[in-house]
Specification:
Elements (H helix, E strand, L loop, with lengths): L4 H4 L7 H11 L6 H13 L2 H29 L1 H24 L4 H14 L3 H13 L4 H30 L4 H19 L21 H30 L6 H21 L6 H16 L8 H12 L2 H15 L5 H30 L1 H21 L14
Helix pairs in contact: 2-7, 2-9, 3-4, 3-8, 4-5, 4-6, 4-15, 5-6, 5-9, 7-8, 7-15, 8-9, 8-11, 8-14, 10-11, 10-15, 10-16, 11-13, 11-14, 12-13, 12-14, 12-16, 14-15, 15-16
């Protein structure tokens, strides 16, 4: 009860339940899209190389476009951007599936992949921008960001398992069709809820870009390194399970990693904190690196599940604190774009980590390839410590 209690008060504000539920379903595909594309294209082309390359194209395109769509939202309002982009995303994803079905030239898969990523929304940033509009400057905002981090982890635990089951047991298209349905209905429902939408700022206020703020640039570098951890751990863990003769256990191992983050997110959001955001961010990065140390030394699947759960415990506190720092460092008229930079940095990091993890696994084996994940976590700590002065928030606000 002491953990759940602080979250109950979040939903007393009118309109909150509606945008939270719509936002949850609208961003379900963020954990389904990549693996759904891999499963579909591999089934139709019999080529993992093509499938992986198309999925990577979508990820990079999304990472590039996220700050740009965030800027459009800040300038014109959520509803005016969300609904057209969602419809365009549905059309381009449908186009990709049709190109794959009818055996169109392979370049069309990459062309539609760019369009799919460019029209995908970083909906988590928009949801958090609404929370900031409603609760900004209060202790409850920390709890709200924690709740959203927990929701993200639920999505990352359930999404890949759902899309894999649909694609392998029903039809190769089924996973992407469900993802498309969720994002279309959820995101449009989110955009239509105007009562909680952040206001559009006067034209003269809308200038600058968050990435030029030193603290935001520093966190972007740290989250780039964290993303490389996520991308490499995902790939290397599948290879580790296969090396141990238990490839089907890969999903359980990755769920353990996300499960640790889910549990810590609930705990972190329920606590009253006196340590500064800057101290919490650096401390969480250090715990993350420390937690990754044992996975390089384990050669048993069951032990690895426990180790990955422990390693995941620092993920949510780091992400939650990163969003909270962004909320305080970035001017309100650039908030959505500022939060989108976190998603962009993680996205680029995941692409780098997956590529490097695959290369290192082929060359040195899975257990040794985990060393890359550990080095990236150490790099994130080094960046955070080295630039910690930039994380001092300009305005003293109530901390939770």
């Amino acid at each position: 009860m002491s953990v759940v209690g602080p979250y109950r008060g979040l939903f007393s504000t009118p309109g909150v339940k509606g945008f939270v539920i719509a936002g949850f379903f609208g961003r379900m595909p963020m954990s389904m899209l990549g693996i759904g594309i891999v499963l579909l294209i591999e089934a139709l082309t019999d080529s993992y190389a093509t499938a992986g390359a198309v999925a990577a194209t979508v990820s990079v395109s999304l990472a590039v476009a996220a700050p740009l769509s965030g800027r459009l939202v800040d300038r014109f309002g959520q509803a005016r951007i969300v609904i057209p982009l969602t419809l365009a995303h549905g059309a381009t994803l449908t186009g990709m599936m049709l190109c794959a079905k009818f055996g169109a030239p392979r370049w069309t898969l990459f062309a539609t992949g760019v369009a799919v990523g460019a029209t995908a929304l970083s909906l988590g940033s928009l949801v958090r921008a609404r929370w900031s509009h409603l609760l900004g400057g209060t202790a409850r905002l920390h709890t709200a960001f924690s709740f959203e981090s927990v929701a993200d982890e639920v999505i990352f635990v359930a999404g890949p398992a759902l899309v894999t089951a649909l694609a392998t047991m029903i039809n190769p298209y089924a996973g992407l069709i469900v993802a498309l349905t969720c994002t279309t209905i959820g995101t449009i429902a989110f955009g239509l809820q105007r009562g909680t939408e952040p206001p559009i700022r006067p034209r003269e206020e809308r200038s600058g870009t968050p990435i030029t703020i030193p603290g935001v640039a520093l966190m972007s570098c740290a989250f780039l390194a964290m993303g490389a951890v996520f991308g490499s751990v995902d790939l290397v863990t599948v290879a580790f399970a296969e090396e141990q003769g238990a490839k089907p256990a890969a999903g359980l191992l990755l769920a353990s990693f996300a499960g640790g983050s889910l549990v810590s997110g609930l705990w972190y959001g329920a606590r009253q904190w006196t340590v500064s955001l800057r101290g919490r961010f650096i401390g969480s990065l250090a715990v993350f690196a420390l937690g990754l140390t044992p996975i390089m030394l384990i050669d048993d699947v069951r032990t690895m599940a426990g180790a990955l759960f422990l390693a995941g415990l620092a993920i949510s506190p780091t992400v939650i604190t990163g969003y909270s720092l962004t909320e305080q460092l970035v001017p309100v008229h650039l908030l959505t774009e500022g939060m989108a930079w976190i998603s962009t940095s993680v996205g680029f990091g995941v692409a780098i980590g997956a590529w490097a993890g695959g290369r290192l696994t082929d060359a040195f084996g899975a257990s040794n390839a985990y060393g890359f994940s550990f080095v990236c976590a150490l790099l994130a700590v080094t960046v955070g410590v080295g630039g910690s002065a930039w994380l001092r928030t300009p305005v003293a606000r109530q901390q939770s």
